[in-house]
Amino acid sequence: MAETVLGDRRSLMPVVMLSTAWLGDGRPADGLRVLEDSLAAFQAVDGTEYERANILAVIGIFHAAAGTPREGRADAEESLRLARSVGNPSQLAISLATLGLVLVTDEPANAIPLLEEGLALTTAGASDVMWSMAQTGLGAACAALGDRRRALESVRNAIVHALAQGDGPSIAFALATGLSPLIEDVSPELVLLTVGLFRARGWWVQQGQLYDWIADRPSASPDEPHHAALRAQIEVMSFDDSVHRVLEEIDREIARHDD
Questions:
Q1: Neighbouring C-alpha atoms within 13 Å toward the C-beta of 198
Q2: 116 with 150: CB under 8 angstroms?
Q3: pTM (2 d.p.)
Q4: In the chain, what percentage of residues exceed pLDDT 90?
Q5: Above 80 in pLDDT, residue 232?
Q6: d(Cα 211, Cα 180) in Å, to the nearest integer?
Q7: Which of 64, 90, 95, 173 is the most exposed place for a label (fewest CB within 10 A)?
Q8: What per-residue confidence (pLDDT) applies to 207?
Q9: Pick from 31, 17, 84, 29: which is nearest to 53 by CA?
Q10: Average pLDDT, the chain
Q11: Which of 178, 163, 173 lies closest to 239 in space, CA to CA?
């Protein structure tokens, strides 16, 4: 499998695309298997430190997205060690974001400076491939530490950037990971708009509170007529319109926080 997917060993794009497809289909274990097989193939042909840093970061990212961040910590730490050694600003931004993401759950205070350092590198001209995910991680970490306003702003920043790139998976990640810690504190409208968007796009979401709403479990999802109409409304909107509708509700949440 690894040899077939890799083709030119210096191109990670086929590997990332295939593993992303597995993740989007709700099969993160298959995506991780492809990545781990590819890492072994790189090592077998003496892959460079840059190549190893890159694929280790992707493995860490997938663990974060799949809800198994602790399992991705060692890979993320090694990716960052290699990236600092190589000195490539774009790879460093990617590796910083990756380690920040896998630390959010257990060590949010330690995740924030890593995410901020990666975002600063991107602002200075490094790759923006992890911008949305880093903003999402920053939002989740801030929410865990009680900074609700910054959390909402970071989730908004993540969605706006991903929408400009046409990056649906990063929007899904922003809402699933960034919104989940705030789900008890934001309006039901925002949660229901998010539920409608996930259903309309067929996006996969890991187990958790947002999953309970999407699964329409009675204990989680209110059944008032207004809420049902709201979910139905967003499910028939265009992709751009539905995301903008979610952003409008996030803006209302930020405004409510300031009142």
A1: 26
A2: no
A3: 0.83
A4: 44
A5: no
A6: 9
A7: 90
A8: 47
A9: 84
A10: 82
A11: 163
